[in-house]
Amino acid sequence: MSRVPIVTSDKEQYDSIADLLKECVPNCETVHIDRASQAMDYLGIEMPELVVINFADERLDTDLLMNVIKSDAWLLNSGIIGLCESVRALRESEKLRSTNVIALLESSRLERQLPQVFSIICHNRHMLFQRVIGSDLGNVITSSFELKNDLIEVSCFTNLICNYLYNLNRIDLINKEKLSFVLTEMLVNSIEHGNCNISYGEKTSWLQNGGDMTELIDQRCKDPAIANRKVYLEYSIYPNHTTFRITD
Questions:
Q1: Any alpha helices (H) in 126-172, and if so which ranges?
Q2: Can you tell me the distance from the alpha carbon of 119 to that of 140, in angstroms, rounded to the nearest whole number?
Q3: CA-based angle 142:117:109, to the nearest 5?
């Protein structure tokens, strides 16, 4: 993995994130960027494979940063791990629409989720934009993923696949968003209903009472028999279509 820029004005947070990344990849190099203007310059010159951006940082003009990224095709190339206070609120803001987002992580779950996401990205580095450029587009590309009972893995793998197909020019932006929605729904259903035996009624009641599905899934996974269950996602990319197979 190339050097990973971490965009945050909080030096303590930068140090914490850098340590988490190095736990996954001991020789991982990071660079601290504490201003939006500096981030724009760095992304434009270095074109890193991956960038971590703290969207909850009020000292950063992330609106300006994302507008500039969206307006420059080359700046769109870097995969983004976004940090936020609320994933739902950030998605609804559409700030990240049309960008190369791989995962959005809430600050309260950073220590648990960032190593997971970074490990997935490192093991599937060939799917990042810079790696796609040299691909033989005439070949059939077949691969598979194994997902734990964890919703952050659904988000990460779905975004990797959809970004990959988009960067291969196999789908346009509209179909990228449609595919992301469908894959997410199917994978979440496989985890919640297939592996964890959570009924529709139980899920509805849990959410209406302010519960978080990650917490309910974690409760279920205290049973080793459930925790050991996996979801398998296989895909084959042909010149004119792509097929998917999901099993739990």
A1: 129-132, 151-167
A2: 26
A3: 150
Domains 1-134 and 136-248 share a fold: no
Domain range 136-248, CATH architecture: 2-Layer Sandwich (3.30)
**What are the extents of the domains in the chain?**
1-134, 136-248
Model-level pTM greater than 0.90? no
Token pair 């700030």 is at which residue?
95
pLDDT grade for 1, boundaries at 50, 70 and 90: low
CATH number of 1-134: 3.40.50.2300
Q: Is 94 helix (H, G, I), strand (E, B) or coil?
A: coil
pLDDT tens profile 169-189: 889 989 999 999 999 999 999
Helix, strand, coil distribution of the chain in percent, nearest 5: 50, 20, 30
CA 159 to chain centre: 6
List the strands of the sheet with 50-54, edge to edge: 30-33, 4-7, 50-54, 79-84, 101-106
pLDDT by residue (tens digit) across 94-148? 777 778 889 999 888 899 899 999 999 988 888 876 555 555 556 788 999 999 9
Structure confidence at residue 133 (pLDDT)? 52
